[in-house]
Design brief:
7 strands, globular
């Protein structure tokens, strides 16, 4: 089990319990939903940050948004507190032959995750953090990044506290 901070084990247990059935909220359109969510997020991302390549989904669950973006060619790192949800994300990505880096982490404590990301997303689960009154132990801060042949862009780096 991941580090237990402010009830993390209870949250992980809840999501572990629903991981095998969570896709059922999409009825028989799970894979369609992955693609739809990817396209919706892609439009949002491209409207503000058209050079985006690297995405951190810091609360990926079973991978709906992470896999949807990876299907569109984004380099995605996906984290979650629920080990069973992470396994579902890995299995779905593998079945669709879609590369996604899937790692365990509580989005309130990202010290174990390193990398530079153009965009950090947290869809559908941020209310846990908003209602808990906790402060994250890692910060995403903007930094300048240039790569050969591309225009300057803003990226987020995970900074360990």
């Amino acid at each position: 089990m991941l580090v237990d901070i402010l009830g993390s084990s209870a949250v992980a247990e809840f999501y572990d319990g629903v991981a095998s059935d969570y896709h059922l909220i999409y009825a028989d359109r799970w894979e369609q939903s992955l693609r739809h969510q990817g396209r919706a997020l892609d439009a949002l991302i491209r409207s503000s940050l058209p050079e985006t390549r690297d995405v951190l989904d810091c609360a990926c669950g079973i991978g709906a948004q992470a896999i949807g973006l990876a299907l569109l060619g984004y380099r995605v790192t996906a984290t979650d507190i629920s080990e069973r949800s992470l396994q579902r994300a890995r299995d779905t990505a593998a079945r669709l032959s879609t590369p996604v880096t899937v790692l365990p982490a509580d989005f309130r404590d990202l010290r174990g995750i390193s990398g530079d990301f153009d965009v950090v997303i947290c869809c559908d689960t941020s209310w846990f953090a908003c209602t808990s009154g906790i402060r994250p132990t890692a910060r995403c801060t903007p930094c300048d990044s240039r790569s050969a042949g591309s225009t300057p862009r803003r990226r987020a780096s995970i900074n360990r506290s």
